Structures are given as structure tokens and as C-alpha cells.
Amino acid sequence: MKRYKQTEINELAEILKNDGVISVPTDTVYGVCARMNSKKAHDNLMQVKKRPIEKTFPIMCADKEQIKSIAIVDEKAEKIIKKFMPGPITLILNKKDDIPTYVNNGRKTIAVRMASSKVLKELIQKTGCPLFMSSANQSGEPTCANLDEIEKSCPTLNGMMEGNVSFNISSTIVDCTLDNIRILRNGPISIEQIETALKK
Questions:
Q1: What is the pTM of this model?
Q2: What is the rounded CA–CA span in Å between residue 67 and residue 69?
Q3: Which has the closest alpha carbon to 160: 172, 174, 146, 171?
Q4: Residues 173, 90: contact at Cβ < 8 Å?
Q5: Within the chain, which residues score under 50 in pLDDT?
Q6: Which among 175, 183, 28, 41 is positioned nearest to 107, based on CA atoms?
Q7: Residues 89-107: pLDDT tens digits?
Q8: Among 131, 118, 111, 136, CA closest to 29
Q9: What strands, in cross-sheet order, belong to the sheet with 3-4?
């Protein structure tokens, strides 16, 4: 399986534009991704991960504007984005009405992250849309810790980006759709940090 340097963004973006699936290092763990604006790319990612159909993928965006293009950002979410993004946090937000059903199984909500590295941001921008982003592993198995493990676990990938991860722990997931925020998964950012940010 071909491994690409972080300078080979154009080649990796072309794979994504052609509905391919690649692995990339994120700030939290190694991820596998596909472009959001293609059902075929979505289905290819499902096959790589052997993921149950009812499980949806988080969406990795390049910046706040891209998040706002697919989700409804209220005052709470705005404060969290300003304080913690880009960073190891995933927000559950209400989706925009024009999001295709396949993106999130027709649910009202969508999970969003913001690219924390310049390389990942550039990859999203060159692909031309946000990316489905999931941890690099088979569904239900531990997240892969390096490229060799990813290649073994996900042998049908179309390419891999070289690089390291920072935290090696999955992002904090925060549900912002309720009156009071709720932590759905603990991660590098604590509920206390988020509550402090919301009080400002």
C-alpha cells in the first residue's frame, strides 16, 4: 500500500475526489477518511471499516465556516468552537436541512470536528468538501497505533499519509443540542474546562 509524504497533498486529494479512502494522522488518533459529498465514498469507507450501517461518521471540517455550512451553530457551540477548536473535541450539533440522508442516516444531528493541522486543513480544502473521519481500525476493534497496524487492519485503503499523532486518545465528544451540554465521551478536554468557557 502506498505511503504518501505530507507534501503530497495533491495526490491524496485526488484519491479522495475519486471516492477513495485514505488514512491520515489527526491530533488525537490515526484516522481513515473519505469525502462527504459522495455516497459512493461514504459506502467505500463503510466497507474499509466493516462498520454497521446504523453507525454514522463524524465530519472533519477545515474551519468554522465549513462547520456552519453543514450544522447549526448556536451561541453555546460558538463559544466552544472559539475556545477549543481546532483541538481534540467533537461537537454534536443539529444539522442543516439540506444535508443528504446518507451522511448521517437521516438523523437531525451531526458530529463535527475541525482540522487541527495545517496539512489536514489543506487536504480538506483541496478535496473541496468536509471529510468523513473515523478512527483507523475495524469497527469495534482497538484504534491502530501506527501505519503498519493500519495497513494490516484496513488492507483495502487507497493510500496512507505519513505522520504522527499528538494525544493518542480519542477526542472529547460534547452534545450541544440540549439546553445543557452533555459529555458523550471523555477525552483530552474536560467538562470543567468546557463549563468554564461557557460562563464567559
A1: 0.95
A2: 5
A3: 146
A4: yes
A5: none
A6: 175
A7: 999 999 999 999 999 998 9
A8: 136
A9: 3-4, 159-161, 22-25, 30-35, 131-135, 59-61, 109-114, 89-94, 172-175, 182-185
Percent of the chain with pLDDT over 90: 88
In the structure grid, which three cell numbers stand for residue 17, read together? 475526489
Partner residues linked to 32 by β-bridges: 23, 134
Rounded alpha-carbon distances, angstroms, from residue 45 to 34, 86, 155, 172? 6, 24, 12, 23
Q: CA 191 to CA 60: how far, in whole Å?
A: 22
Cα distances (angstroms) measured from residue 173 to each of 41, 89, 92, 151: 24, 6, 7, 27
Give the cell for residue 80: 466552544
